[in-house]
Here is the input.
Amino acid sequence: NAGVTQTPKFRILKIGQSMTLQCTQDMNHNYMYWYRQDPGMGLKLIYYSVGAGITDKGEVPNGYNVSRSTTEDFPLRLELAAPSQTSVYFCASSSSTGGAYGNTIYFGEGSWLTVV
Amino acid sequence: AQSVTQLDSQVPVFEEAPVELRCNYSSSVSVYLFWYVQYPNQGLQLLLKYLSGSTLVKGINGFEAEFNKSQTSFHLRKPSVHISDTAEYFCAVSTQGAQKLVFGQGTRLTINP
Here is the structure.
């Protein structure tokens, strides 16, 4: 049972480069999320999606883009990478509004990104 | 809007000692509360959650938490910790109809032998 799978696990980018973090889930969840985790800062929501074709900004969307063409996939695009985007990125999914009605959010194992 | 404050960024304890990780929240409406655990180099997984009913909630690995509405708290406890409990613990809050969880800053629990 794969759950939420994200790739790559580690990546080093040069300033100004672009890349896409891939995320896929096999639980048929409508809701998907991208978080970033910085030391001592907890998790900050970057973007989320409530279903295929629908996305919305979270707390820290600047410098990122997302798309949701299928229920399963929710890639995160970094354009013109900056050192401030060095972080650990987590993709997650839930069957309905994450947290509302007590729905559990399921997380991927994380992607460590360093921008130099 | 709701918010979460975890009062301790790091908690060191000795093995087999009890532990309490503190969490306070702020919300003007009824809340759902969660504790997630993150083991080293892994993603987060649900430890326990409070939705309604009994204010004492039991989770996995012997952890429990108590919802205290008057003190707006949801502290996590374990009577006797093990080395394998070394992890970062996140408190989170949501409300009915909300589209996302709000996470606290995390508490790093370190177990010393």
Q: What stands out?
A: The two ends of chain A are 36 Å apart (CA to CA). The mean pLDDT of chain A is 91.
